[in-house]
Amino acid sequence: MYKFLLVIPFLILNQSFELHAQTQTPKNFIAFDMDYATFRASKGMVHLEIYLLVSRTEFKFIPDSGKYHSEHNIEVRVLRNDSLVAHDNWNRIDRTEDPNSIRSTQLLPDFSDFVLSPGSYNLLVTMTDKNAGISGKRQVDLVLTEYEEGELIISDLEFATEIKEAEKKGIFTKYGRDIIPNASSTYGIEMPVLYIYCEIYNFKSVDGEEPSNYQVEYSVTDLNGKEMIKPEPRVHKKPGSSTIEMGGLNVVSLKSKGYYFRIKVTDLATGAVATRSKKYFVYRPGDTQELTDAEQISGFGADGYIESVYTEMSLKELDDEWAMMKILAYKNEKKLYKGSDEEGRRQVMQKYWQERRGQITRDEFMLRATIAKQQWSGLRPGWRTDRGRVMITYGKPDEIEREGHSINSRPFEVWRYFGIDGGIEFVFVDKQGFSNFELVHSTSRNELQDYNWIRWIQVSSTGQGAAIGR
Description:
This protein is α+β, with helices and mostly antiparallel strands.
């Protein structure tokens, strides 16, 4: 099954760091972004939409009748208790007259969707370059919840690169509009407007009156809850018990880091209120990620902003964020969190950032975690990998030295930090050949130290690591 390709030229967040020195690494996996959103389906069911985004440069182009083409396969699997419950599989062909004209900012969006019953699932997406024979994988655990009748509620938010009138119906068409998904959730100079799509359910009718109005408010906060953008609310007439919301917000004035987009809907007849928020990222070339002292202080705002962020989170969202925060947590914090109820966990997380005031802000922490997720996620989240943990703990390295696979050596990376403890290094080796770089040595006194680490790089004639020092 072949589907058409749509190319979106815009600047996405370059998570490859600006480095002083590095060697070219042979490409051995496909990197792509994935996002999803859920909407109401028939009674008792949930409509799951899956969004993908990949750069054209991820694929190998080969000669084809005087031109060139790449071909890749996408497979989407939804599992429940290790059993396959939904499946989609298709090929894409991309053609060009000149492969040298292809840029990393030329992006290919894609889409798949299923109607599923509520419950817990595992979503696994595999993208394979059929010309190069290499693949990339992304997976995520899902909990699908039914959009029940009753209280006013907003669906998940779909971030988009563009919303326009549909000339003809395609895979991105909804209600006569083409909504091009932005699975990277990243915006910037060349993509200044954050477009969103969502659905609103359960407006109540007022007896004896014409359909009344409802109000929609957009706002943007930083990851600590500080309000950055808040345009004037808009008022609409209710079309019935449900409606859709499509709109955009210019976010190019914001600095490069993570933010929350928030939508608030108020039924002006009943006073019912519903909110929904989602993280996104701004990247502007030339921005520094270093926060000033004033920004670090104002980011906490007498702890009110941190408190507001965690107040809106569900227990699962708290636990998911805490799983990353544990990387920097003290032993007593881990013990206290484990033994606390939901409200207690919110307080532990709020105090966590109070204790680290002047060391690292939640903004910076979440940015590091996002880089780890987008760079190294595969069969497990990127922040759980060794490189992800080091990124979250120490930040972006000042220099990375990379060496690819050769006959006598395995791929490895050396990360250097010049401003920590007089200069420290981390050595990561791809021991198994699956792009899972493991930490084998560091000069930091708090990390694994193995000054005979070179043995992990060397390959013997049998293909096994050399026995030096074993």
